[in-house]
Amino acid sequence: KNEVEQSPQNLTAQEGEFITINCSYSVGISALHWLQQHPGGGIVSLFMLSSGKKKHGRLIATINIQEKHSSLHITASHPRDSAVYICAVRWSAGGTSYGKLTFGQGTILTVHP
Amino acid sequence: NAGVMQNPRHLVRRRGQEARLRCSPMKGHSHVYWYRQLPEEGLKFMVYLQKENIIDESGMPKERFSAEFPKEGPSILRIQQVVRGDSAAYFCASSPGADRYGYTFGSGTRLTVV
């Protein structure tokens, strides 16, 4: 079964701390996405990765294809970073399954001032 | 260039009524995906459409749910005879192609069945 697992499920931090959220998946993928969702809000795409590392502002995303693992890091965390962070994968091309995303359960991040 | 537009943002329906959710993809995007987020659950794939074609509907409930993406106009997710269990947030995403491309998500439609 194709699965995506995230850890931790809940994460509480103090402002300024370095944060890491992890994502593991079961089989080969063509791309991995990190998404952000604020309570009651829409979904924002943060990164799409197929290899290596990407950085945008205080956010860094890495992926290790051999280990089937990705991490999202937030440096110098801020209360406005409080949100749900979701890992999603697009499985390797094959039939009609390659277009859609399969999602992890999400990590609820709370950053206190 | 507006993003993915979903409407309505909030929709309240009584049990047994029909719900129509609309999604206008980004300009130049011909691939549309619908996802559902049940309360306290993660996002789940429902259906993948290209203009005038359903590519993958493996996530759609067998009954009462249908989707279309006509040549002109928005994609529509239609739920007939809604039940309380249909209450959820429904998100649409679009992309210019099936692979190697990122997604843009809409703000979602929150359906409440009373």
Key terms for this structure?
heterodimer, A: 113 residues, five-stranded antiparallel sheet, 0% helix, B: 114 residues, mainly beta, four-stranded antiparallel sheet
Look at the structure and give the mean pLDDT of chain B. 93
Number of helices, where a helix is a run of at least 4 consecutive DSSP H or I residues of chain A? 0
Biggest interface pair, counts: A-B, 26 and 25 residues
- Assess the beta-strand content of chain A as a share of residues: over 45%
The helix-strand sequence of chain A is EEEEEEEEEEE
**Oligomer kind:** heterodimer
N-to-C order of helices and strands of chain B: EEEEEEEEEEE
Q: How many individual β-strands of chain A?
A: 11
Number of helical segments with 4 or more residues of chain B: 0
* Poorly predicted ranges of chain B: none
Radius of gyration of chain A: 14 Å
Our measurement of the CA-to-CA distance between the termini of chain B, rounded to an integer number of angstroms, reads 36 Å
Q: Write down the overall mean pLDDT of chain A.
A: 91
- How much helical structure, as a percent, in the residues of chain B? under 10%
Into which percentage range does the β-strand content of chain B fall? over 45%
Query: Major sheet of chain A, described briefly?
Result: 6 strands, mixed
**Rg from alpha-carbon coordinates of chain B:** 13 Å
Strand tally of chain B? 11
Main β-sheet description of chain B: 7 strands, mixed
How would you describe the overall organization of this protein?
The complex is a heterodimer of chains A (113) and B (114). Chain A is mostly beta strands. In chain A, 0% of the residues lie in helices and 58% in strands. Chain A is built from no helices and 11 strands. In chain A, strands 2, 4, 5, 9, 10 and 11 form a 6-stranded mixed β-sheet that branches. Chain A has a 5-stranded antiparallel β-sheet with strand order 1-3-8-7-6, with no helix packed on it. Chain B is an all-beta fold. Chain B starts with a strand and ends with a strand. Chain B has strands at residues 5-7, 10-13, 19-24, 31-37, 43-50, 53-56, 65-68, 75-79, 88-95, 104-105, 109-113. Helix content of chain B is 0%, strand content 49%. Chain B is globular and about 40 Å long. In chain B, strands 2, 4, 5, 6, 9, 10 and 11 form a 7-stranded mixed β-sheet that branches. Chain B has a 4-stranded antiparallel β-sheet with strand order 1-3-8-7, with no helix packed on it. The mean pLDDT of chain B is 93.
